[in-house]
Amino acid sequence: MAQNATMEEFEALLNESLEIDTPTEGSVVKGKVIAIEAGQAIIDVGYKMEGRVDLKEFANPGEAPELEVGDEVEVYLRNVENARGEAVISREMARREAAWDRLEEAYGKEERVEGAIFGRVKGGFTVDLGGAVAFLPGSQVDVRPVRDAGPLMGLKQPFQILKMDRRRGNIVVSRRAILEESRAEQRAEVIGNLAEGQNVDGVVKNITEYGAFVDLGGVDGLLHVTDMAWRRVNDPREILSIGETVKVQVIKINKETHRISLGMKQLQEDPWDTVIAKYPLDSVHTGRVTNITDYGAFVELEPGVEGLVHVSEMSWTKKNVHPGKIVSTSQEVEVMVLEIDTAKRRVSLGLKQTMRNPWEVFAETHPEGTLVEGEVKNITEFGLFVGLPGDIDGMVHLSDLTWEGRGEDVIGDYRKGDIVQAVVSEVDIEKERISLSIKAAGGDPYAEAIGGVKRGSIITVTVTKIEDGGIEVEYEGMKSFIRRSDLARDRADQRPERFQPGDKIDVRVTNVNSKDRRLGLSIKAREIAEEKEAVEQYGSSDSGASLGDILGAALKGDD
């Protein structure tokens, strides 16, 4: 009985010993390094169990392992025994378990954790947080995009845990959050020492198309392109370079957003203070074209003083063309000051005013009646436009194309590019119009034909055509028509058929119509005039002489 009791006690003690000394699989246990060989550490984890762990599991990313025989370490027991009778242990998993405990506590308290970036993955980087691997998105590396993350690799630095899931093994961290918090504190301190109107030194940190960011010692201020100089600055890189130290003035501080607006031109004298004195109205100056728009061109008179030459003030003759076809950027031009508005800082300039009005010049050199020659530039329904000296055009109206017929009938004979001669008939300088006459260039055949003909004159005409209503006659190339009622004094003789084409007859001029270019002719009027003259000269019918006697006497007198 005593022997049996002793065996039971021994068995109980043995089981108790096994429960105490034998570690549980899936737990972190302590062990001692008993040997280092072949890149592995042999660790005694108790109960005569030994396992092997690669030395690299004892090293931090980018560092060499610091491990010696006799060191006590914590490892994760995965299996008590493998096929070779050795314990399956892992230093990395032990560190991970310990790290997760520590990180969960820090995450709950919103505390920072220390880690090192050791690898690059799609969309970001991997970070070792003392055993646990976290994901660092590319957008969370810095407050600004990082082109080269090489200098950050392997450095121990603080991170903020944004999200973690132990079951899935996911941890997301941010370096940017730490920088922004630190930067906010620094900005608040620096901004507290700044005041609007203060002049400070800064370093150009970044340049964009709209300006430059200047580091004022921990806080950035924006130097807008319009505040860099009084003159127009198309590209900030013209006057600034990254890393350059510049003196700027604090223009405005937004206490809520901590945004700072800076200026450089405010440290220079404003050229507009002397504009009125330097550029009086109607004065002419040489400037440089800085910008061209649809509505005109900007001309720099001096750095900081620009004026606009409106498209309507660019050329006397080119009315509907783009300003870019008249001037070019960087071209030096002469301009006249037309108006100055100091309140709006605007100067109105004129380009055409520096040249004489071509219509005035033409009027002086080509008075009315001058014969000119030019090329047909355009043909419209109401006439021709002819190019003239001075790059201006004159118009030939339909009524000035020909003496005979209608202008509508002969305008089709002209083509663009034809060279024509015309006479200047009128120049209107204010309306910028020049009237020309092609028909007058060859003289006026009507005026030449009727040079000495007056109302009451007796002329000889040639019959050219017989009609029911009268006859058509010709005098010195000019056509006229004698109505039936004017063919004779006696009604019985008012018959057109008694005439033949080619007959020459004497007629009396009853009307000279220069406007319609017509002569009023009458045989009847001639006969009546001759009768009256004969009566006055040779007696009257009242004295007893018959009309036949009187006319007979008149005829004898003529003979």
Automatic annotation (TrEMBL):
Biological function: Binds mRNA; thus facilitating recognition of the initiation point. It is needed to translate mRNA with a short Shine-Dalgarno (SD) purine-rich sequence.
UniProt cross-references to PANTHER family, sorted A to Z: 30S RIBOSOMAL PROTEIN S1, SMALL RIBOSOMAL SUBUNIT PROTEIN BS1C
InterPro entries: NA-bd_OB-fold (IPR012340), Ribos_protein_bS1-like (IPR050437), Ribosomal_bS1 (IPR000110), Ribosomal_protein_S1-like (IPR035104), S1_domain (IPR003029)
NCBIfam families (alphabetical): PRK06299.1-2, PRK06299.1-5, rpsA
CDD domains: S1_RPS1_repeat_ec1_hs1, S1_RPS1_repeat_ec2_hs2, S1_RPS1_repeat_ec3
Keyword Repressor carried by entry: no
Domain of life: Bacteria
Family listed: Belongs to the bacterial ribosomal protein bS1 family.
GO terms assigned for molecular function: mRNA binding; structural constituent of ribosome
Domain S1 motif: 26-92, 110-176, 197-265, 282-352, 369-439, 456-524
Any single GO BP term: translation
Protein name: 30S ribosomal protein S1
Any single GO CC term annotated in Swiss-Prot or TrEMBL for this entry: cytosolic small ribosomal subunit
Species: Jannaschia seohaensis
SUPFAM superfamilies associated with the record: Nucleic acid-binding proteins (SSF50249)
Keywords recorded for this protein, A-Z: Repeat, Ribonucleoprotein, Ribosomal protein, RNA-binding
